[in-house]
Write a structure and sequence with these properties.
With 397 residues, the chain is an all-alpha fold. It has 17 helices and no strands. The N and C termini lie far apart (63 Å). It catalyses: a ubiquinone + n Na(+)(in) + NADH + H(+) = a ubiquinol + n Na(+)(out) + NAD(+).
Length: 397
């Protein structure tokens, strides 16, 4: 390792200003900082508030996402194996791989993981490549360092997609989300919405057939299966128990079906101080409050009016959106009071979209985007209120 360190130090001047490889400094810096701790550190405690930098924050978020990634592998494969055993899974390269490895078997954990990986990994590798390309391009043009945030965005995005998503649509959407949702505003730290959510919104409005309906959640051409939330919105019996919904063994987007996996991620983010418990708690309070209000009003024609809070908490992408999307430190409210308002707004909007619009029972992701847009306004009014309160306090002295 010392030889590699010496090699990097020997050739560093080529990438600095005036060097023959100056334009490629972001690539050099990314490699150097990935392998070694940055040599440019502050001595003493003058400017250091904690030991976390952006790289470590992103690494922690990736660790928090691991249970959801494992569920993306297992549950996607489980649903695909169910479809295979029902005789509705069309022949393809994935089934050819599965037949070589021992066949698709829903009772085999290894078979489910492998089959799920064959759906998840192509989407993930594509989004990682496309995200890395745009990050590198803008870093080189701006002569900035390459931010590690694209690694998290490239992992979040496939987790909130259905397994049947065409790869080219995922590539187009992540490109638009990263460029229009982040890079045009200056890159990491300056985006006002979550890029992964914006990419999903692009897919939802541009290619609705690939994002909604009952033919996209199970990777089988001749098998239709609505998500439990979609079934309940139409008054049908989803056949899913609450505990299975909590654990995540049900059709849905690849990585957001398990509330248990999201709870693990929430614990990691809260303990490390990266995710705001205020946002998560107030989001739950907002959802439960409005759902209880709807339950009190009741309806004979709208089944969602009668769906209890405990079901809302475990169905759809609410848990994932609350833990990993609403707590994005860049696009969320930054003031303490603002966090409570922001989180409550997201939870209440999720309930409102789900209940009032039965045609679109999943509303968590749009609710977070709505919250992102209003976060700066919330912070502004909170800060103004603090200024007025302090003004009155000092005026009374």
């Amino acid at each position: 390792m010392k030889g590699l360190r010496n090699f990097l130090e020997k050739h560093e001047h080529h990438f600095k200003k005036g060097g023959k490889l100056e334009r490629w400094y972001p690539v050099f810096e990314m490699t150097d900082s990935f392998l070694y701790t940055s040599p440019d550190v502050t001595k003493g405690y003058t400017h250091i508030r904690d030991g976390l930098d952006l790289k470590r924050i992103m690494t922690t978020v990736v660790l928090a996402l691991i249970p959801c990634v494992l569920m993306a592998f297992y549950n996607t494969g489980l649903q695909a194996n169910y479809a295979f055993e029902a005789g509705t899974l069309a022949e393809g390269w994935r089934l050819a791989v599965m037949s070589i490895s021992g066949g698709a078997d829903s009772s085999s954990v290894g078979s489910c993981f492998l089959h799920g990986a064959l759906y998840f990994l192509p989407v993930y590798i594509l989004t990682l490549a496309v995200g890395g390309f745009w990050e590198l391009l803008f870093a080189v043009v701006r002569k900035h360092e390459i931010g590690e945030a694209f690694l998290v965005t490239s992992l979040l995005f496939p987790l909130i997609l259905p397994p049947t998503i065409p790869l080219w649509q995922a590539g187009v959407a992540i490109s638009i989300g990263l460029v229009m949702g982040k890079e045009v505003f200056g890159g990491t730290g300056r985006n006002f919405v979550n890029p992964a959510l914006m990419s999903r919104a692009v897919l939802f409005f541009s290619y609705p057939a690939a994002m909604t309906g009952d033919r996209i959640w199970i990777p089988a051409d001749t098998m239709t299966y609505a998500t439990p939330l979609g079934s309940m919105a139409h008054g049908s019996d989803s056949g899913i128990t609450w505990i299975n919904a909590f654990l995540g063994f049900m059709p849905g987007s690849m990585g957001e079906t398990s509330a248990l996996a999201c709870l693990f991620g929430a614990a990691v983010l809260i303990v490390t101080g990266i995710g705001s418990w205020r946002i998560m708690l107030s989001s739950v309070a907002g959802l439960v409050s409005l759902v209880l209000l709807f339950n009190g009003i009741g309806s004979e024609t709208n089944p969602m009016m009668n769906l209890s809070p405990e079901w809302h908490l475990v169905l759809g992408g609410y848990a994932f959106a609350t833990v990993f999307m609403s707590t994005d430190p860049v696009s969320a409210s930054m003031t303490r009071t603002g966090m409570y308002i922001y989180g409550f707004l997201i939870g209440a909007m999720t309930a409102l979209i789900r209940v009032v619009n039965p045609a679109f029972p999943e509303g968590a992701m749009l609710a977070v985007l709505f919250g992102n847009v209003f976060a700066p306004v919330i912070d502004q009014y909170v800060i103004k209120a603090n200024i007025r309160r302090r003004g009155r306090r000092y005026a009374g002295c």
